[in-house]
Write a structure and sequence with these properties.
Elements lengths: L1 E2 L5 E2 L13 E2 L3 E2 L12 E4 L6 E3 L2 H13 L45 H4 L16 H4 L32 H7 L57 H32 L2 E6 L7 E5 L7 E3 L4 H6 L7 E6 L4 E6 L3 E3 L5 E6 L8 H8 L16 H7 L4 H12 L30 H6 L4 H4 L36 H11 L7 H9 L6 H13 L2 H9 L8 H6 L2 H11 L1
Parallel strand pairs: 7-13
Antiparallel strand pairs: 1-4, 2-3, 4-5, 5-6, 7-8, 9-12, 10-11, 10-13
Helix pairs in contact: 12-15, 14-17
Protein name: Zinc finger GRF-type domain-containing protein
Length: 567
């Protein structure tokens, strides 16, 4: 018998006998017709453990039984010995290439109708094939002397041995009673037992006890064992030295941990100087261990606020080292700790702050170097770029550079765009038509400034968009800039940023030309001035007396810059 190469299935057992089998059998077996030629190529499945047998095609099996009952004329032809090999000149008749019609079974439509009892008789097991009566005497094997069953080898047993394959030559009850393994399949204990019914709730099943108990157990008594021969007690001196080394190591480890914590607190500290009244010395306080370093919010440090007598709703002025100005801020706001770790604060409205300039000069960042020692000759590239200016304008610029800087506080003559009737300059991006024809156009005046056209609008509103007022008709940078706008521009350009200084300068002043040397001269003059002078510049009005050049001429910072240029 042959089987299909499929997966094995569970044996259905013999339900009408109450036998449940757990063996796995092939799903399909094909009968080779060795014992019953009429059953050749019929499909079935069987189990050797429980004796299960089933034909998978009952109709084909019934047809084979009918052919078997009608004789060999309608069944398989008898096996004949092969003829002698034919000669090469012999030609086989095509009509003889197939068996004659008398050897072929009739079609199912010509078969006589049989009752259901004969159509589906109970199939015999494959171990006991049915042999036709005509050839029963020929097909029945004659038992040999070696296959005859002898008496059971167990003492006191009169039965014969149950199987010739028994390893102990015993009958089945005696072989199973001794509990030893046997080669005979029928003498082995059957594993096909009825499966117990499982409960619907799987949590009702019994579980093994847990390895670890969740209840407190009394400590187990340590059995007293005798020390081994090679084991000796530790000497007193060695134990004392060992304990001392262990304690010293623990102390060094704790000291190192404490040192790291203190070093972190020392690195993340800030010193605050706070002026509460005009003319009074500043209060000093220190705060260490800032967890949000380098960001700082004063409201998260109540001890520091208590030392400075401040509340959550207080408003203070905080000094910005980059721009050189005080800015009004709330207590509850996040700031970045300055690189100097010094915070200068004062109450809103305080102007007289002793030692403020000393603190600023001591802790402010270094001013970048400027192009102070430039060559007197102008390069060809610079000369080509300056040829676009008219000769009269170049002469006025050169004369302005060679004139000595005034030290008096007297205001200069009123600029063309300023008149007694209009103290504020016009915010228009282009001059009046009357002045456009008489005044030569410059590249700075031709650029759009995007300024509001309403004179009533406050120019300070431009600061919120990152720009300052750059009025036309007052000259070139920085002659046409007011001091308060220049102070605001310092706060927008000086702080470090990813945007280059040249781009920030062009955006703030709304121009396409970036005079690097001139700009850093103004920065140095602003940085070297006293804080009272810087506060004054930030409060000057937009009049002829409030121009940047007027304030710069009387400032101490510009005097230091000119003195350095003369050296």
């Amino acid at each position: 018998m042959a089987s299909y190469p499929h997966e094995f299935i569970n044996c259905p057992g013999i339900p009408h006998r109450g036998i449940v089998c757990t063996n796995r059998i092939p799903p399909v077996l094909i009968c080779s017709g060795r014992n019953e030629p009429y059953h050749r190529d019929l499909r079935f499945n069987a189990c050797d453990e429980c004796g299960h047998f089933k034909w998978l095609d009952p109709e084909l099996w019934a047809a084979a039984e009918r052919r078997k009952s009608q004789g060999p004329a309608y069944g398989a032809p008898p096996d004949l010995p092969p003829d002698n090999p034919p000669s090469s000149s012999f030609t086989l008749d095509p009509a003889l290439a197939y068996p004659p019609s008398q050897y072929l079974p009739p079609p199912p439509s010509q078969l006589p109708a049989l009752p259901p009892s004969q159509l589906y008789p109970p199939p015999p097991p494959p171990s006991q094939p049915r042999i036709p009566s005509s050839s029963a005497s020929l097909a029945r094997p004659v038992p040999s002397q070696s296959s005859r069953k002898g008496p059971c080898s167990a003492k006191g047993c009169t039965r014969k041995e149950g199987s010739a394959e028994c390893s102990f030559k015993m009958c089945k009850p005696c072989c199973q009673g001794q509990g030893k393994g046997c080669r005979s399949t029928s003498h082995r204990p059957r594993s096909s037992t009825a499966l117990p019914s499982l409960p619907d709730d799987p949590t009702a099943l019994s579980r093994p006890p847990p390895i670890f108990s969740y209840q407190d157990q009394p400590p187990a008594a340590v059995p007293s064992t005798q020390p081994k021969v090679y084991k000796t007690s530790m000497s007193t001196e060695f134990a004392k030295q060992y304990n001392a080394n262990h304690e010293a190591h623990a102390q060094r480890k704790a000291a190192e941990q404490l040192r790291r914590e203190q070093e972190k607190q020392y690195e993340h500290q800030i010193r605050v100087y706070f002026w509460t009244k005009d003319g009074d010395e500043p209060q000093s306080a220190r705060e260490q261990g800032i967890a949000t370093w380098p960001k700082l919010n004063l409201i998260n440090h109540p001890k520091l606020l208590q030392k400075l007598a401040l509340t959550d709703s207080s408003e203070i002025d905080i000094y910005d080292f980059d721009s050189g100005c005080f800015g009004r801020e709330d207590i509850d706001h996040v700031m970045e700790v300055p690189r100097s770790k010094i915070l200068l604060m004062r109450h809103v409205g305080i102007r007289d702050c002793p030692q403020l300039d000393d603190f600023i000069k001591k802790h402010r960042p270094a001013v970048p170097s400027t192009a102070g020692n430039r060559r007197a000759s102008i390069s060809n590239k610079r000369r080509a770029s300056t040829d676009i200016y008219p000769s009269s304008l170049k002469a006025s610029r050169l004369s302005h550079r060679t004139e000595p800087l005034p030290r008096s506080t007297s205001p200069p003559s009123t600029p063309p765009s300023l008149s007694p009737s209009s103290p504020e300059p016009s915010l228009s991006s282009s001059p009046a038509p009357s002045t456009r024809a008489s005044t030569p156009d410059t590249p700075l005046r031709l650029l759009p400034t995007h300024l509001p056209t309403q004179p009533s609008q406050d120019p300070d509103a431009l600061w919120e968009s990152g720009r300052v007022l750059n009025p036309a008709g007052l000259g070139t940078l920085p002659d046409n800039i007011y001091a308060r706008d220049m102070a605001a521009a310092f706060g927008m350009i000086i702080p470090k940023s990813a945007v280059p200084v040249s781009d920030r300068f062009k955006t703030v002043f709304q121009t396409s030309h970036y005079p690097k040397g001139t700009w850093y001269q103004q920065v140095r003059a602003w940085k070297n001035s006293e804080q009272a002078e810087r506060d004054e510049a930030a409060q000057l009005p937009r009049t002829s007396a409030g121009l940047w050049t007027i304030w710069r001429a009387r400032s101490t910072g510009w005097a230091a810059v000119t003195e350095q240029k003369r050296r």
